[in-house]
Amino acid sequence: TTTAKFSSTTDVTALSAADFGKLTAVDLGLLNKAQAALLSADQLNALPAASVTAISNVLKYIPADTLSGLATSKVTALPVNVLTTDQLKGLTGDQLSALTAVQVASFNKAQMTVLGADNSLIAPLKLSGVNIANLPTLANLSNDQIAKLTPAQIGALSAAQVGTLSADQAPALTAVQAPAFKTLSAFSATNVIPNLDTKFVAALPGKTLATFSASQFNAVTEDQAKVLTSAQISALTADKFANLGTSGANIGLLTNAALQGLNKTNIGTFNLTKLSGDGQFASLAPSQLALLTTTQMGVVTADQAALLTPDAVKALKTGNVDGGNA
How many Å apart are CA 227 and CA 296, to the nearest integer? Predict the structure, then answer.
């Protein structure tokens, strides 16, 4: 038979696609660099998918334009971790989309760097199994890919990687991913923070939200401020709370429930005029009012004071205002 006569000296260009498709794994293991360079897409497509792995030793010698003609059913059997830069760049969108998560996870850092640098190459890939440390930039990921990054992948992101997220990608981050972020300090105050979904913001642990700088807190939007929780507020330092929105403009949008997170760490410096209407001031607990300074209470209106409960008034008389701690 044809297969019995095959050797490393066989003229592969003389083999029809049908004959090449009959070669055994042992025959294919005899292919050398020169022969691999002469193979056609038709010959490779004639191989059973199970036989494709047998060409792994010479796969890198097959021209990129030849591999680009490979059927997706064959691509899913390729040992892609041996592909060269030119071969990777030559793969079609359909071929890249056909790669399994296991194949994509087998790409090494050099390969992921090549793929990640080009949106047309990285966007079609299934990234669920990828070692995220092998992907230097997130800038070219699609929003669907961003949304599907696992909590483990999110938690492994470096500040440099987080810093590559764009304004367009920011809304794709999900509430499930939020607790996995170790730090938000690399989020762009200009592009990323204003575009974060409110569900993502509401799901951030207080200790993570507290990694925002004062300037980043300036970038928090009105809608984002409205979903902040008491647990998040309690984790903030005084300077960060005072900068919620431009110069604290969004403090007045916090819910009464969120304001219950104010404590001795952050309540004593912000300007009470930032509170909206009377409801927010009246919602402060007696224990919180006792922490206010004389300077802060100096801006309280008569209408606001009239809303205070007897316990609240008592707290003021025994706290900072009359107690000389201001």
Answer: 25
For residue 263, the surrounding DSSP H or E stretch is: none
Contact 301, 279 (CB under 8 A): no
Alpha carbons within 13 angstroms on the beta-carbon side of residue 180 total: 17
CA distance 178 to 3: 57
3-class DSSP state of 4: helix
Residues 252, 273: Cα–Cα separation, whole Å = 9
CB 157 within 8 A of CB 184: no
Residue 196: name the closest of 151, 228, 241 by CA.
Answer: 228
Share in percent of the chain as helix, strand, coil (round to 5)? 55, 0, 45
Place of tokens 């499930």: 176
CB 91 within 8 A of CB 65: no
Kindly report, residue by residue over 93-137, the tens digit of the pLDDT.
999 999 999 999 999 999 999 999 999 999 999 999 999 999 999
